Amino acid sequence: MTKKLTLPKTGIEGLKENWRSDLLAGFFVFLIALPLSLGIAIGSGFPPSAGIITAIVGGVLVSRLNGSFIVINGPAGGLIVVMLAAVQSLSDGDMLSGYRYTLAAIMIAGLFQVIMGRYKMGSLSAFFPAPVVHGMLAAMGISIIARQTHVMLGVPHDSDSLYTSLGEIPQSLFNAPAEVATIGLVSLAVLFIWPYLKGNRLGQVPAPLVVLVWGLAAAQFFGIDHDHYHFGQAELHEHLIAAPFLVDIPSEFSQYFYLPDFGKVLTFEFWMATMSICLVASLESLLSASAAEKIDPYKRPTDLDKDLSAVGLGNVVSGLLGGLPMIAEFVRSSANVDNGAKTDWANFFHGAILLIFVVMFPHLIHNIPHASLAALLVYIGYRRATPQVFAGILAIGKDQLFLFVVTILAVLETNLLVGVFFGVFVKLLLHLARGVWLNNMFKIHFSIKEEGNCVTVKIIGSALFSNFLPLKRAVDEIPLGKNVMFDFSQAYLMDHSILVFIDNFIAHYVESGGGSCQRIGHALETFSDHDLAGRLMTKDDRKS
Prior knowledge:
The chain is α+β, with helices and mostly antiparallel strands.
């Protein structure tokens, strides 16, 4: 029997108790956050300093307000496509003006998030089926790869067409300046190899830090900080190898900041950008915060509503200062836990250390090559659309894979908002095709009966992603210490989202010392061999 860990104190008492472990964890997260923040900002069409601002605000401010304990807040790779599209649509040919208009959109999106949190909309992510969310992320990953590969190779590329960008990667590889391409490709190779080194001491060093150090050293070795020429292989033209291949960042911290411009607040493009930022930032943040909760060794629950409001306020401040939108970021949160973080002060320390570093060592940041940062983004994009992601979706069911692919294609062919809602629409059509009644599509029927120490939750009819929030709220109110039974005997259809929720509830309830949970009434046909695959009432039971 494992010994239950003593919960760390919070607030000032938590700082006094755990400052050593949290400071160390915050320092390790800083090492990861620095290159990622720079790369995400550049990939988003923002000045590199914007990513730094976001990470500082996320650490120093949001850490004192959020509803989680080990989450790291900062810029995210998943928002690159959204932000770049916003800057381009609002730019009128001038990227700086597009950037300032986008800052205004970030602020308003942040206000919406604050309101959503206040009105208990932290369960928003539950409304979107998992394959739709993963399809959205995969589509953004493909878009990142298409655009950032050329940057990684050091080849200018201005095409707005995704398919053109993908198709011209071989040409860019053939014509790439050897020095820049070497930096980028070695950086990418490090990122792919590093997960296999976790068993030794070298693997404990954060891969982004290795990429950063390699990039700095290689840039000095190749002399990228001064002008010289490289002749392409496929065509007799020359590439200027010079400082533009390095991060362009002000030498004074006071020059990092830009003010938002609300001049396009009455345009359709502005509100499309605002709603896209709000939707994607909220979904990613809530999903990441929920995932981070599961790796917390102390199993402390996350207040998603409070977290959403805190991130929203952080986005208001970030947009005001010239930064990107932020989310609760899972990869950095995982590194935070792995390095011994106890409380949210680790998030604070990561932001504070970043602030001290950029004030004292701006020249070091300037010597980082774009190619290394672009390699980080290409790897992020790949992780969102790996063959393993497709295989994992297929394992849940062919219907899930179909929905996943449909969402990817819809996002790539239209835009993020249209693509996501098209995926949701297709999911609803699938349910209708399986015989779900129209009046059951958005209204769930269930009962909860308590007899002594036993609580029975009976599902009647169909329980779907589109109707289960009332069930979630009711089940969350079940007191600890009960024997909970989920009765599926009268359920017509249980989709994957419901089964994931019930599975997570059971695990959390038991771990919290709640009592016991079990499922009864499994007279349902599954859509695959996966434990959490969707289930449909058998034909015999439908007749009876």
